[in-house]
Amino acid sequence: MTLTLDSRDEAMLAGDHGDAVALAMRVITRVAASMQAESLLDISGAHIDSCLYHGQAGLDFALRLADDGATVVVPTTLNVSSLDLLHPELYRGDDHTRSQALALMEAYEEMGCKATWTCAPYQLEDRPAFGDHIAWAESNAIVFANAALGARTHRYGDFIDICCAITGRAPAAGLHLDDARRAAVIFDLSAVPDRLLELDVAYPLIGHHIGKLVGTRVPALTGIPAETSEDRLKAIGSAGASSGSLAMFHVVGSTPEAPTLDAALGGNTATTHTVTAADLRVARDQLTTAATGGRLGAVSLGTPHYSVAEFGRLVELLDNRHIHDNVGFYVNSGRDVVHEIALRGWERRLTDAGVQIVTDTCTYITPVMAETYGVAMTDSGKWAYYAPGNLGLEVVFGSVEDCVESAIAGEVRRDDTVWADA
Amino acid sequence: MPEAQRVLVAGEASGLVLALDEPLSFWGGFESETGTIIDQAHPQVGESLAGRVVTMAVGRGSSSASTVLAEAIRLGTGPAALIMREPDEIVNLGAIVADELYGITVPILIVDEPTFIAIAAAERATISPSGTLTF
After folding, report:
1. What's the gap between Cα A11 and its chain centre?
2. In chain B, which residues have their Cβ closer than 8 Å to the Cβ of A60?
3. Mind telling me how many Å the CA of B26 is from chain A's nearest CA?
């Protein structure tokens, strides 16, 4: 199998559109060859993860492109960065990293990317449609685009995201193609009691569990009530892309490429794993490093970024009560969503209750949380997976209801009745 | 001498072998400043990848792994080469961009199962640009 380029690709590679475009096309063709792609295809949008600062190499690459005048040729959104530009006072890192991170953000804006600064670009008004080819980086966004929207992106990493955006091209391989999108393994959840599947807390645990088992295969989930909400699909995908490399999944009866199990399989034969309530309880315990009953230091919600519906639920649960003085209560979200909740009057109510809203970034990737005395709680499988290593915190995973009640009491509380016979 | 099934990033390398018992996420699991594994849940936490011929069956984790690997290669704390069973585009990207930006080549090879097992048990390995392995 060899890669055949069309005349536009050849011209870009030859430097007809400048050194930056040539570099971008070189990176794409090298990756395309490693994916055994036979050609490149047109994309209609991109989402950039490379704007999050991880060292000089990322900045060197962005400046090589931006200083040569490269600009994106498709609508391109930006992932979270290391800084909250709307709440800069929260940043507790060093000045050098801050200035490097800012330079990186500016380089991507200079190339024409939109200053969305969110890991949940699928919550923006303009989002990809079914069947669109896109080049998205950020693991949770990739899996959501493929699974929930039926848009097509391979599991792209940093660097190639911007290369695709400035050339408008991506390798015709991997999850862009029908074959790779079909389910190759089944997870049957019909043994999990309905009372558990009716709760949001089940979904990050399902994601964490399947992420560990799935490898590079695409799973189909059966036995989940039809029309699973986008927030629940987001929870499955983000947790599974943290515990494993989940980049696409089907929920039969809910996701667009899985009206039936047969449609999801597309002729593949697949083995079936039965998932039980006990498996989900194990997942909960794997995402928990501390006991309940101790002092609560912080709560972090919104990994991935909170949606309008999730904010609505939080306002309802707080019910005009105030967070305990010892507890830092953080909710990460995108600017656009925060703008929307401000219009609804919720931002003010949350702030009055003692909630700190964090935009543009996330509490697990950059030092924005105040010093935490005690355990941290979250309802996010992804945050619970990464926070102990990244932040050195003890973490208890719970439902959003557990997080709110604990935050008001100042003590780690979890309602375990739902797990009673699991 | 065994040959790679596929050469994803071509180059020369030689070094002591480090056989990873589990896949490593370069972002969150590895520190580019020191080249060491920092994932507390990884069985080889504390080991250094710097200058080693690293065997890792498959890739894992975040999109940001590409940048972390490229940064480690820039700093000289990255692996000398990566030997894998399955390609991982996110890992490849780190090595491709480090090559493009700094001219430092870290070869990535895909090998068959017997070769993977044999090289993981070896003390040293040498890789040629065509993908020939000597160990």
Report:
1. 35
2. 74, 101
3. 11
- Per the CB < 8 A criterion, the answer to whether B64 and A158 are in contact is yes
Instruction: Provide, as residue numbers in chain B, all residues whose Cβ is less than 8 Å from the Cβ of A155.
Output: 63, 89-90
- SS percent in chain B: helix, strand, coil, step 5: 30, 25, 45
Range A293-300 average pLDDT: 96
In the block, which residue shows the tokens 């230091």? A297
Separation of alpha carbons B1 and B91, rounded Å: 26
The answer to whether the CB atoms of B64 and A49 lie below 8 A apart is: yes
List pLDDT tens digits, range A298-356.
Answer: 999 999 999 999 999 999 999 999 999 999 999 999 999 999 999 999 999 999 999 99
Structure token pair of residue A44: 């209609």
Strand partners, A333: A306, A359
- Residue of A67, A141, A100 whose CA lies nearest to A304: A141
What pLDDT shows up at residue A372? 84
Do A144 and A267 share a domain, yes or no? no
Verify whether the Cβ–Cβ distance B61 to A242 is below 8 Å.
Answer: yes
Residue B3: φ, ψ to 5°: -110, 150
For A337, the enclosing helix (H) or strand (E) is helix A335-343
Q: What is the pTM of this model?
A: 0.95
Structural domain B6-134, CATH architecture: 3-Layer(bba) Sandwich (3.50)
- Residue A212 placed within a domain: yes
